[in-house]
Amino acid sequence: MSGSPRPARAPDAPRLADGFDDDPRCTTCGGHAVFDPRGGHLRCLSCGVARDLAYHDRDAAGRALRAMDIGGDTDLGPAPDWPDAPDEGAVATGDIRACSGCGGQVVFVGHALSTECPWCGGPSTALEAETAYATGALVPFAIDRATAMARAADWLASRPLLPRGVAKRAGTGRMVGLYAPFWVFETRETVRYVAMASTAEQRGAATAREALLDTIEMTLEEFLVPASPHVPPEMRDALSAGFRPGQLRALRPGYLAGFAAERHHQSLRDGLAASTAERDLLIRAALRDRVVPPHLVNLSHRAELRAARYRRVLLPVWMLHYRHGRSRYRVMVSGIDGQTRGERPLAHGPILGASGLLTALAMAAGWALARMV
Question: What pTM value is reported for the model?
Answer without folding.
Answer: 0.76
